[in-house]
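B., you asked whether I could sanity-check this one before it goes into the benchmark set. Here's the sequence:
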Amino acid sequence: MTESYTHEYTFTTSDFKIMGWSCCRLYSLRMPDQSLSISLDIDYILEGLTDIDADFLILPSLLKFENINHFEASQKWDILKDAVPTDIRMIECKTLDKRTPHGQTLYEFKIDTDFGHINVCCTGFTQTPTQKPIWSPTMNLNR
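And here's what the prediction gave me:
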């Protein structure tokens, strides 16, 4: 993937109002680590055509929440049963009144999925593509 291509489809907290994650497939969640971030591996729906072919332009992406101050998750996955795909229903963002010790704005993100929720208090997010967009007849690539 070329640098300019990656740049074209990289989104940040400042893009939140123009984005939507409804029906985006969630493949994995990387828990907070020493970098104080969590990452979601998703199929982001860039475009959906409403004609009879109903094709979707899917962008496999890594949605990374940075400088985590608080993290809470409640997911009801039954690992003993067959794997059931999980989709994001919506993501809400609220700007908080408090700041980090370095003066950065803190945001609260509420991520609702088919099987629960994830709440994150952090300095923002970056969503970067992991590969080029792909046209698909469905809203995910079943990777």
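One thing to flag: Residues 3-136 form one domain. Otherwise nothing jumped out at me.
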